[in-house]
Design brief:
With 436 residues, the protein is an alpha/beta fold. The protein has helices at 80-89, 108-114, 148-153, 169-182, 193-196, 205-210, 217-234, 246-257, 294-306, 321-324, 341-350, 356-360, 365-370, and strands at 5-15, 20-29, 32-36, 49-52, 57-60, 62-67, 92-97, 129-135, 158-160, 185-188, 201-202, 214-215, 237-240, 262-267, 311-313, 386-396, 415-425, 428-432. The protein contains 13 helices and 18 strands. The strands form 3 sheets. Strands 1, 2, 3, 4, 5, 16, 17 and 18 form an 8-stranded mixed sheet that branches. An 8-stranded parallel sheet has the order 6-7-8-9-10-13-14-15. Strands 11-12 form a two-stranded parallel sheet. Helix 2 (108-114) links the parallel strand 7 and strand 8.
């Protein structure tokens, strides 16, 4: 829709930030939410455009803190445009691009090149709001601090060393101390490279039966313990990125109880799959951290419900067929996830683990708050980034239908329930599901 003023009626309004869950209307004007509830009802003389949501769920557009593309340098994997198309089809309206590209996003010029927080909804193709994660160390090599202050001024939303930990604790301590002085968020993948070794999947009896080397859970939580202690010493705001073990959650809960500014994310696919889904050496299920045990998965779900986990990410990591269709020990890690995050969380609603608001919070206001952005909520003045979805609609995920340039999804062939029908960006329809 091209109108600058739009009223959506008969929608189930879901706003985790305020706890709103009610049938009502919302009025959008000039790219922002102008009114919500009774005040948004269209008047008989009004010239604004309206559409009836038919009782479907209307929530803030999703905010994804961990998205990889191949741009710049490896556009055959994914471009910002193709990632945006996949994101909008999945109800995601803001993405944070990871810095591990070719070249690495470790300087001001690349941050400025990629950062696009105010998209043109009339552009072709339409892109989401683009935020950028700057590299924590030069070249992500873990040896020298990157230009954190300058990249922050250029618009970098957070800083991370990507998939690899900074193994040198002195370098990490100095970097965290400087980050604390700049009041920026540092995201660390809790990991211990020497313990991880050449593992392929979760260490345990199942990996042993398959004859595969395992990644032990202690590789994560020992790394998490170190990162949390350095954050406490330096006063750094720390985001533990993609946790997967209950022991890591215990460490985080203790740090939060002591008042430390520490937070965490979990990948949506870790809430849906367990180690058994690797099955017959399925490389689409080869991710890092690996899918853990069923008891680990249930512990992660409980942490989402309790609010211990601040954000759920897609961990979108597109990999072309030539790096995935290999023996599992040789295949690359990574999974495409932008189009399946919402469905993965809705599966937990249907299973009775979470309420709709509990499922949506870490996808909307939770991540938006971590990077200090106004989106992720239904409130007057907030950006009119919205997702309209049918929580009951069944659909089958097939890689052929995914909009990502690389379609390495562990959900390929899965029957899911809960489908995005329309995504609005700055008050305009950026994605609408075909009616055929």
């Amino acid at each position: 829709m091209s109108a600058s003023a739009l009223t959506i009626t008969n929608a189930r309004l879901l706003d985790p930030a305020s706890g709103r869950d009610e049938i009502g209307a919302i009025h959008l004007e000039d790219g922002r939410i102008a009114a919500i509830g009774a005040d948004a009802a269209p008047k008989p003389t009004s010239s604004r455009e309206t559409f009836d949501a038919g009782g479907l769920c209307l929530a803030p557009g999703l905010v994804d803190l961990r998205v990889k593309t191949g741009e710049p340098g490896e556009e055959h994997r994914e471009t910002v445009a193709t990632a945006s198309a996949a994101a909008l089809a999945g109800g995601v309206t803001t993405i944070v691009l990871m810095p591990d590209t070719q070249p690495v996003i470790d300087d001001v010029a690349l941050v400025k090149y990629l950062h696009a927080p105010n998209p043109d909804p009339h552009a072709t193709p339409v892109t989401t709001r683009i935020e950028v994660a700057g590299a924590l160390t030069l070249g992500l090599e873990g040896e020298a601090m990157a230009e954190i202050g300058l990249m922050r001024e250029a618009g970098a939303a957070l800083f991370t060393n990507g998939d690899e930990p900074v193994t040198n604790p002195t370098v990490l301590k100095r970097t965290m101390a400087y980050a604390a002085s700049q009041d920026v968020l540092v995201a660390c993948r809790p990991d211990t490279r020497q313990l991880r070794g050449s593992g392929v999947m979760n260490a345990g009896a199942f990996a042993a039966r398959l004859g595969l080397s395992g990644i032990p859970s202690e590789a994560e939580w020992i790394g998490a313990a170190r990162d949390l202690m350095l954050a406490e010493v330096t006063g750094c705001r720390l985001l533990l990125d993609q946790v997967s073990t209950p022991r890591t959650l215990d460490l985080l809960a203790d740090a939060k109880a002591r008042g430390l500014p520490v937070y965490t994310t979990v990948a949506a696919h870790h809430l849906y799959f367990n180690e058994g889904d690797v099955g017959d050496y399925l490389t689409y299920c080869k991710v890092n951290p690996p899918f853990r045990t069923e008891s680990d998965r249930l512990a992660l779900i409980e942490a989402v419900k309790s609010g211990l986990i601040d954000a759920v990410v897609s961990a979108h990591d597109p990999q072309p067929p030539e790096t995935k269709r290999l023996p599992i020990a040789e295949a690359s890690f990574g999974a495409a996830g932008l189009e399946t995050s919402l469905a993965a969380l809705l599966s937990l609603v249907h299973a009775g683990h979470l309420s709709l608001l509990e499922a949506l919070r870490p996808l909307t206001s939770g991540p938006a708050d971590l990077i200090g952005k106004p989106q992720g909520r239904l409130a007057p003045g907030a950006p009119a980034d919205l997702v309209l979805f049918d929580p009951a609609a069944p659909w089958k995920c097939t890689r052929e239908a995914l909009r990502s340039r690389s379609t390495n999804s562990p959900f390929d062939g899965r029957l899911l329930q809960g489908r995005v029908e329309r995504t609005l960006l700055a008050g305009h329809t950026a994605f609408q599901r075909p009616t055929n």
